[in-house]
UniProtKB/TrEMBL annotation:
The keyword Cell membrane does not apply. The chain crosses the membrane at residues 12-30, 50-67, 79-99, 141-160, 167-188, 200-217, 229-252, 272-293, 305-327, 339-363. This is OpgC domain-containing protein. Coiled coil: none annotated. Residues 368-387 are annotated as: Disordered. InterPro entries: UCP028704_OpgC. It comes from Roseomonas nitratireducens. Keywords: Membrane, Transmembrane, Transmembrane helix.
Length: 387
């Protein structure tokens, strides 16, 4: 397995992304006890913020090199090719997820699944629902992260040259985020609701990642040096966020009863349009990890670290599989919530994600490997006679 992991990359990025993908699987499985150790329970940000920020980092690093070597047009065409891949993956996941939820709802006589996961339009108006899903104007629950990624990556294809002027890019991105939040701007949806993740707001986190990932030729990338006071502020923000998270998710009745004037402000810490506290929390975590975890730390290359890195390096198939498996895990936990079922769901779920990552990495390595000569009797590695 180690041979399938690209060790020349910054493993901190891959490990954090792998952990985020595992957390997405766990958090989308209701009743999973492992949800207690995921970041949403002790920070104001969660796996989604990490996923979007690191997607931007990877885009800035990879496509920035292509742009500087082969020009913006070619790089933009590569980005749009990735957009198409994400779109196909989203539609495939939509079909699989809808089929398994619909089949389960029929066999178990549990129509509540369709209502809860916003799949009821497929029963009332299936043809229109399918059309709107293809247009990304209809997004059932759990199927709203890839549409966000598709839109911000398409925006990146147009804005890519601005990476050479990162502060201008970040200023324009922050202005769009602020306008979207203050004016309630979002993309239209079929049934009148706003997108669960507003791309006009979440693009800021993506473009921050782009700015951090881009390596200008002959220039200096954006580096925020370590300052003790900045680190102290980050820890203070995380501690305050942990306290607010407890009040919001675990002590809401206490908050309403004892802090009635404070409750509306807490309730306004929204995820849809990337509340400033959620954004600040993700940036604080990024700053601390970047400076307190050495890029050459030995534990990054330990077996657990490499398992997470492998998941992070095969993010798209692992994400899709995690969403599909999460509903199967839900069905299992609803059948039995015993400790052994919790163990089966989590162990088999994690094993399936790792197995898929291994298979995808192996297939990618085989595609990149030099082709062997097809001439009969020619020794492996010997040049074929082209005369």
């Amino acid at each position: 397995m180690r041979s399938l992991i690209r060790l020349d990359r910054d493993l901190r990025v891959d490990i954090v992304r792998g952990f985020a993908l595992w957390a997405i699987f766990v958090n989308h499985t209701p009743g999973n006890v492992m949800g207690a150790v995921t970041p949403r329970n002790y920070t104001l940000s969660d796996a989604t913020e990490a996923f979007v920020l690191l997607a931007g980092y990877a885009a800035g690093l990879a496509y920035g090199i292509v742009m500087d070597r082969q020009g913006w047009f070619f790089a933009a065409s590569r980005v749009l090719g990735r957009v198409f891949t994400l779109y196909v993956a989203h539609i495939f996941l939509l079909v699989v997820f809808t089929a398994q939820v619909g089949f389960s709802a029929e066999r178990l006589d549990a129509a509540a699944y369709l209502d809860e996961l916003h799949l009821d339009p497929f029963g009332a108006d299936p043809y229109r629902a399918l059309l709107e899903a293809l247009l990304l104007r209809y997004q059932p629950s759990f199927l709203n992260i890839l549409p966000l990624y598709i839109v911000v990556l398409a925006m990146f294809a147009l804005a890519m040259p601005l990476m050479r002027r990162p502060w201008l890019m970040l200023g324009l991105s922050a202005a769009l985020w602020l306008v979207a939040r203050e004016m309630g701007l979002s993309l239209p949806s079929w049934r009148g609701e706003d997108w669960f993740f507003n791309p006009l707001a979440w693009q800021l986190l993506f473009f921050i990642g782009c700015a951090l990932g881009y390596r200008p030729p002959g220039g200096r990338p954006i580096v925020l040096p370590w300052r003790r006071w900045a680190g102290a502020l980050c820890w203070l923000l995380l501690a305050a966020g942990a306290a607010l998270t407890v009040l919001i998710h675990f002590q809401w009745d206490f908050t309403l009863a004892r802090l009635p004037a404070f409750a509306p402000w807490l309730a306004a810490i929204d995820k849809a349009s990337l509340h400033p506290l959620r954004l600040a929390t993700m940036l604080a975590l990024t700053y601390l990890i970047a400076h307190l975890v050495s890029r050459d730390a030995a534990w990054l290359r330990s077996d657990p670290g490499l398992l997470l890195a492998l998941l992070g390096q095969q993010a798209l198939p692992v994400f899709c599989a995690g969403i599909a498996l999460s509903f199967l895990g839900r069905l299992a936990l609803e059948a039995s919530d015993a400790w052994w079922m919790q163990a089966v769901v989590n162990l088999l779920g994690a094993a399936a994600l790792v197995a898929l990552a291994v298979l995808t990495a192996w297939y990618g390595a085989e595609k990149r490997a030099p082709r062997r000569p097809s001439t009969p009797g020619l020794p492996a590695g010997a040049p074929a006679d082209r005369g």
